[in-house]
Specification:
The complex is a heterodimer of chains A (306) and B (360). Chain A contains 14 helices and two strands, in the order H-E-E-H-H-H-H-H-H-H-H-H-H-H-H-H. Chain A is an all-alpha fold. The model of chain A has no long low-confidence stretch (mean pLDDT 88). The mean pLDDT of chain B is 90. Chain B folds into two domains: 229 residues, Rossmann fold (3-Layer(aba) Sandwich), CATH 3.40.50.300; 120 residues, Nucleic acid-binding proteins (OB fold (Dihydrolipoamide Acetyltransferase, E2P), Beta Barrel), CATH 2.40.50.140. In chain B, strands 11, 12, 13, 15, 16, 17, 18, 19, 20, 21 and 22 form an eleven-stranded antiparallel β-sheet that branches. A six-stranded mixed β-sheet of chain B has the order 6-7-8-3-9-10, sandwiched between helices. Classes of the chains: A mainly alpha (306), B alpha+beta (360).
């Protein structure tokens, strides 16, 4: 029977593996595991109550008022995802193409486009909250200055524009990321391949649709999946700009805010409900994991080895 | 019908001029090879003809039509790239169909063109494969097929054989020659390999440093090189240039012996003598000739090449009988054997025509 001997080599390996494993177990595996466990218990404040099985999941999905809150937040996340897909990733692709074709000023814009990405979300949120200030904010001042008074709206203060404004700010801040990923994908395309295509078509559109787009598929997979995950985990920006309630009147409420409110309570409700909160967190996690995995597999299939 | 006329074509990249005024006439159905060392501008010139890069100055006409501002896809020109540049996300059929579909041809016409090209290039069974599932030689054929189906007036081939291994290279070379005979289009072929140039071309354009050094048939270039660059570039092993001084009917190297000639250029006392390996003899004991010391002997089966260093340090190649093996450092005498030799101006390197000299 082989004995485990603590030779110099195994000692080394053990010494190198144990600390990171311990850190991962304590700070990643344990919290996830316990959140999962919390979801199956009844909670009174910080006090764990009875094991209630799937009751919490049933609550957040099917009992009022939780059910309609969940539904509303989920709908908002979907809107955010599709809008950002078009605005952030779509414009990102176009920007990347422009940078790649080295239109004038490409070197400057390559940096400019990516600059907001390195800013902290807290700063961005705060900055744009000031920009959107209905009276003193530069956004409205500029609109008034150029005579477009009807566009001078309380952007964050009315239900019809609040979510759109948040989406805009998110796109402004993050557009550099898809741009950079797409640009890297485009730069991987061999020059001769494009030359060959240019010998056969003078249409920029055909070139993009038939050659560039299929060949940047790996980049598209990355930005689509990351955007999907980001959209359904959306929290910091709305938290900073519109607060935990998704004001005004929950018009900007998303799953992240709703979960936080439910689990940890807020000024207005003041109730902590780890049970329902954890159930929500587990549902969000499962939804993201399943959909992201499904699409990753689907999208990988259309990628091409260059 | 495709006649190409280039007049004073210049190309500058920012401040750097890489082509200094190219004048060239290419006739219908001609197989023209641009040859020259890397960086000589041959590929750039091809890209100007293709329209992939704009012409800075001068004009390019295809038949009577000025082409400078015509888009590459509208020129009636197809190109085969060095890396083949097949679309990796399309199968072979789609690769070939891509361009002709954009030309707006009817479906039946596209299909018949592709099957014809596939038959010609013997790749019918490859049509459903993706480029990554093909070998180098097969990719090469697809690239040629893609050019073929467009039925262009002019074919451009940019070093199409350089990514193939040596055995395949000569095979594909033959196929390209055969293809040219069958389809009869005008072909422009870029290579740095003078053997490809010699074997394929009706007309060779030798380029160096952004200029055309000489245009002519392989035979003209070999037999009457316009200057020392063409002389040394065409032919393998290459021509040796020896700096010689004239004295009567003899050409000599200082302290290195001399050789007699019946024909010499007039006037110039100093010139370059260009000799190919088979215009020389090498002997251990001889009264006359250049003195030299053997560096090494290359045995090639049918013959051997002796490389020897002359008194002034020039390395000279001499073709000999395969049984004549010389040892390194052996002292030898080198003489002309009566085969044609070439004379070039010592400064400009331009060809000098000899005339008979009276014997002393």
């Amino acid at each position: 029977m082989p004995r485990l001997r603590l030779t110099g080599r195994t000692l080394w390996i053990t010494a190198l593996i144990v600390p990171p494993l311990a850190v991962m177990a304590t700070f990643v595996a344990y919290p996830i595991g316990s959140a999962l466990a919390y979801a199956f218990y009844d909670w009174q404040g910080l006090q764990r109550g009875e094991f209630v099985g799937l009751q919490n999941f049933y609550n957040v999905l099917f009992t009022e008022p939780f059910a309609s809150w969940t539904q509303r937040a989920f709908m908002h996340n979907i809107i955010v995802f599709f809008s950002l897909m078009v605005i952030q990733n779509g414009t990102g692709f176009i920007l990347a193409y422009a940078l790649w074709r080295e239109l004038p000023g490409a070197a400057f814009h390559r940096v400019a486009v990516f600059l907001p990405v390195v800013l902290s979300t807290v700063i961005i949120g705060f900055l744009w909250k000031l920009f959107f200030h209905p009276i003193f904010g530069p956004v409205n001042q500029i609109f008034r200055g150029v005579g477009l008074d009807f566009l001078a709206q309380p952007w964050l203060g009315q239900s019809s524009t609040a979510l759109g404004s948040l989406i805009f700010v998110n796109a402004w801040a993050w557009i550099g990321f898809p741009t950079l990923v797409f640009l890297a994908g485009m730069q991987r395309i061999p020059t001769e391949l494009l030359d060959a295509a240019r010998m056969e078509t003078d249409s920029e559109w055909v070139l993009i649709k038939k050659i560039v787009w299929p060949l940047v598929a790996p980049s598209a997979t990355v930005v689509f999946i990351l955007l999907f995950i980001g959209s359904f985990n959306w929290f910091e920006l709305p938290y900073i700009m519109v607060g935990l309630d998704g004001s005004p009147f929950g018009s900007t409420d998303v799953l992240g805010l709703y979960f936080y409110r439910t689990a940890f309570g807020n000024q207005s409700a003041g109730v902590q409900d780890f049970g329902n909160g954890s159930a929500l967190a587990v549902l969000i996690f499962l939804f993201i994991a399943v959909v992201a995995a499904f699409w990753t597999v689907r999208l990988r299939k259309r990628e091409i080895q260059l | 019908m495709a006649r190409l006329t280039l007049r004073n074509v210049k190309k500058r990249f920012k401040e750097t001029e890489v082509l200094h005024g190219i004048d060239l006439e290419i006739r219908d159905r001609e197989f023209v090879v641009f040859v020259g060392p890397s960086g000589c501008g041959k590929s750039t010139l091809l890209r100007l003809i293709a329209g992939l890069d704009p012409i800075t100055e001068g004009s390019f006409h295809l038949n009577e039509r000025m082409m400078n501002d015509v888009a590459p896809s509208k020129r009636g020109i197809a190109m085969v790239f060095q890396s083949y540049a097949l679309y990796p996300h399309m199968d072979v059929y789609e690769n070939m169909a891509f361009g002709v579909r954009l030309m707006g041809l009817p479906k039946e016409e596209i299909e018949s063109r592709i099957s014809e090209a596939a038959r010609m290039l013997k790749m019918e069974e490859l049509l459903k494969r993706k480029p990554r599932e093909l070998s180098g030689g097969q990719r090469q054929r697809v690239a040629i097929g893609r050019a073929l189906v467009r039925k262009p007036e002019v074919f451009l081939l940019d070093e199409p054989l350089s990514n193939l291994d040596a055995a395949l290279r000569s095979e594909v070379r033959l196929e390209i020659a055969k293809l040219h005979r069958e389809i009869g289009g005008t072909m422009i072929y870029v290579t740095h390999d003078q053997i490809e140039a010699m074997t394929l071309a009706d007309k060779i354009v030798v380029m160096n440093n952004g200029r055309v050094e000489q245009v002519g048939s392989p035979r003209q270039l070999f037999e009457k090189p316009a200057n020392s660059f063409v002389g040394t570039f065409i032919g393998s092993p290459k021509m040796t240039l020896v700096d010689v001084s004239r004295s009567g009917n003899r050409l000599g190297i200082a302290d290195g012996g001399s050789v007699p000639l019946d024909e010499l250029p007039d006037k110039t006392p100093h010139l370059k003598l260009g000799v190919r390996p088979d215009a020389l003899t090498v002997k251990r004991e001889a009264e006359d000739g250049f003195t030299a010391s053997v560096v090494y002997t290359e045995y090639l089966g049918d013959d051997s090449y002796v490389y020897a260093r002359l008194a002034d340090g020039t390395l000279v190649a001499i073709r000999t009988h395969p049984n004549d093996i010389f040892e390194p450092d052996e002292a030898v005498r080198i003489n002309l054997n009566g085969s044609p030799v070439h004379f070039f101006d010592a400064e400009s390197g331009q060809r000098l025509e000899p005339s008979a000299v009276a014997a002393h």
